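Changelog-linked ticket: zinc ion example.
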Amino acid sequence: MPSPLRKKNGSRWRSLEARVLAEETHCALCDQYVDKSLDRKTDPLSAAIDHDIPLHRGGPEYDRSNLRLMHRGCNRWKSTMTLAEARAKKAGIVKARSEIVASPGW
Ligand SMILES: [Zn+2]
């Protein structure tokens, strides 16, 4: 029996992937430009297609609204978080750093 999490094959996935690559230019997590010419097998700054709500947390696999362009490395870091959770965690890290650099004094 094929796993329900098995993905990334079939023309349905390929056409959705092509749509995301054509429609989006920046990483959904870090907001930096994604160079789509980089080697997607090895380069952490290359393009990856992320499921905003991960599949094993009930996110739809073939719904365009659940798909985002992301760096391969950002996609790995996001792991099983939703995009909102990952952005909040990332913002928390940035906030913690800025508090050390410039304490508001209260
Ligand atoms: Zn990124």
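Closing comment: Example verified and attached. The mean pLDDT is 88. Residues 13 and 62 are 7 Å apart (CA to CA).
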